[in-house]
Design brief:
It is a single chain. It is built from 23 helices and 22 strands. The protein is of the alpha/beta class. It has an 8-stranded mixed sheet, with helices on both faces. A 6-stranded mixed sheet has the order 1-2-4-7-9-11, with helices on both faces. Strand 14 and strand 15 form a beta hairpin.
Length: 552
């Protein structure tokens, strides 16, 4: 377990970021420890980053939402002279496995999406205050902010130099955010992404690459002005007290990872992992005061955090376990009661954050490159937000009628109001709307079934599960599916699943992740980038890369 990547962070031990709170403003300084790389073999010079740096950033973004409800503006800036951020560390990328590079890019995208949405969803606006060079992934950090202020001096610029320097592409949505979010003209974007030196000054603003360009003499005043403007618009409470995101209770063994509400079993011989979710043992809090008192131990928040950690653990630490099975055990009514309390108080900042966290966790499931299935067994509790897992996975199997010697309550699925809009996918619509894209009337029919415990026959009739089997066929059918899945090419499965999961509208978010899957899985394996004479290997040596010139 020495090489395990851990996504749990102790704020007292941050090595790369510094957070300073001033009233309703958080000043977030990127000050990367050069010697603090996640792996050996590279130094994090010029505020370049690896996965460890981004794990800290993700933790900070999460804590700002839950622990600091009064924060209305976050100013992202550099703690170093003459450089904002040089982007992802090149030596790290050159030495990483292909799987690590892609999962690294996916996690950084998810982190940026989280603070990019914070302004609209939570009233926490992010400002990028750029002094010095801001290149590659550094500019992608800025692109995910709501507002970009660039110093007008000789050393400050923005750049996406991946194509000319490294023979790869911006991996954290850079190209997409330039065109789709900042609406940079296509020909100007072509110029911008083809030059190493980037763009500075008035041109950067004219091309819409930044929002403000100001001399250093007026830089701090401009930042203060923008802080005041965004603070005035924020609905965040001025005097609310946050809750502490205390460390998870987690035990990691050779073939399992156990939490209080989630148990992960690893079957390496079969190349699969099973995630068992346990329903609440305690009654739902009576109101938000009670929920606040429970803090991070409140069931809805505790389960979200544990499931999130489990998914990330499997992504980065168990790459050969190609299939994930979701199971649950507990009282569906208890799950619904805990969710309902939050839904009834959705205008409360903490309830809103807890529900938004579930939205992000479910998206994390959607975007996980594994074959996924759910087993709706007797005694399960797939209700409300847990029912969303049934529509996130590639297939679902449900137990039909009584099973011999099984005295658990019959399997049911229960939908709540939240299944019809509270947890949208990256495509901007619900999983049910995506599932029934060709049958929109079915979604309306399902709304009339809200809070009804649907048995296997009804769930099958309504299209909520893929198959329903009785005790004669159950074991064999599930076994055949798992054996078949394990026999297919992992590459083909990743591509097929990514293509099938996001039917319907295309959004900036689906374009970012769809292009990430296509571009990174292709470009990052081409010899022009990663071969012995490729750009990533020769970067910094003074020797130019040698390219195979065929267009394929």
């Amino acid at each position: 377990m020495a090489d395990m990547i851990d996504f749990q962070v102790d704020p007292a031990k941050y090595r790369h970021w510094r957070l300073e709170i001033e009233g309703n403003t958080a000043n977030l300084f990127m000050d990367v420890d050069e010697a603090g790389g996640l792996f050996e073999g590279y130094e994090l010079k010029l505020n370049s980053y690896d996965l460890g740096v981004d794990i800290e950033l993700a933790d900070i973004v999460q804590r700002l939402r839950f622990e600091h409800p009064a924060i209305k503006v976050v100013v992202m800036q550099s703690g170093k002279e003459r450089v904002f951020c040089a982007g992802a560390n090149i030596r790290m990328l050159a030495g990483s496995t292909h799987a690590h590079k892609v999962n690294f890019c996916k996690f950084t995208n998810e982190t940026r999406n989280t603070f990019e949405a914070a302004g609209t969803e939570s009233g926490q606006t992010y400002i990028a205050a750029i002094k010095g060079a801001c290149a590659g992934g550094g500019y992608e950090l800025a692109l995910a902010c709501d507002h970009i202020i660039l110093a007008d001096d000789a050393s400050s610029n923005v750049a996406l130099p991946e194509v000319p320097l490294l023979a790869v592409l911006p991996g954290t949505g850079g190209l997409t955010r330039v065109t789709d979010k900042r609406k940079v003209r296509r020909d100007l974007a072509d110029v911008f992404c083809s030059i190493e030196e980037g763009v500075k000054g008035k041109r950067a603003k004219d091309w819409r690459l930044v929002d403000d360009v100001v001399p250093n003499s007026r830089f701090d005043d401009t930042v203060a002005t923008r802080i005041a403007e965004f603070t005035a618009k924020s609905p965040r409470p001025d005097d609310a007290s946050g809750i502490q995101l205390t460390p998870l209770q987690r035990t990691i063994a050779a073939d399992s990872v156990s939490y209080t509400t989630v148990d992960v079993t690893l079957d390496r011989a079969a190349r699969q992992a099973s995630i068992m979710i346990t329903g609440p043992a305690e009654a739902a809090p009576t109101d938000m005061a009670a929920f606040h008192a429970e803090g991070a131990e409140a069931y809805m928040l505790r389960l979200a955090r544990e499931l999130d950690d489990a998914i990330l653990h499997l992504r980065l630490n168990e790459p050969e376990l190609g299939t994930i099975l979701f199971q649950s055990s507990g009282d569906p009514e208890a799950v619904l009661a805990h969710e309902a309390m939050l839904l009834q108080n959705a205008d409360h900042w903490l309830a809103n954050e807890a529900l938004l966290y579930w939205k992000r966790v479910l998206k994390r499931v959607d975007l996980t490159s594994r074959s996924m299935a759910a087993l709706v067994e007797h005694g399960s509790c797939f209700a409300g937000m847990l029912a969303e897992l049934l529509f996130a996975v590639d297939r679902s199997y449900m137990m039909l009628d009584e099973f011999d010697s099984d005295n658990r309550p019959l399997a049911t699925i229960t939908l709540s109001d939240a299944n019809f809009g509270r947890y949208p996918m990256s495509n901007g619509i619900t999983r049910l709307e995506t599932r029934f894209l060709g049958e929109p009337d079915t979604v309306e029919t399902l709304k009339s079934q809200t809070n009804a415990a649907l048995d296997a026959e009804a769930a099958d009739e309504l299209g909520l599960v893929t198959f329903a089997f009785d005790d004669v066929d159950w074991e064999d059918e599930v076994r055949i599916f798992l054996e078949e899945r394990a026999s297919f090419s992992p590459d083909a499965m990743t591509a097929m699943e990514a293509n099938l999961r996001f039917a319907g509208p295309e959004t900036m978010e689906t374009r970012i992740f769809g292009r990430l899957t296509a571009w990174q899985n292709w470009v990052f394996q081409r010899p022009n980038a990663v071969g012995p004479d490729g750009a990533l290997q020769r970067y910094g040596t003074g020797v130019r890369a040698e390219f195979n010139q065929e267009r394929v």
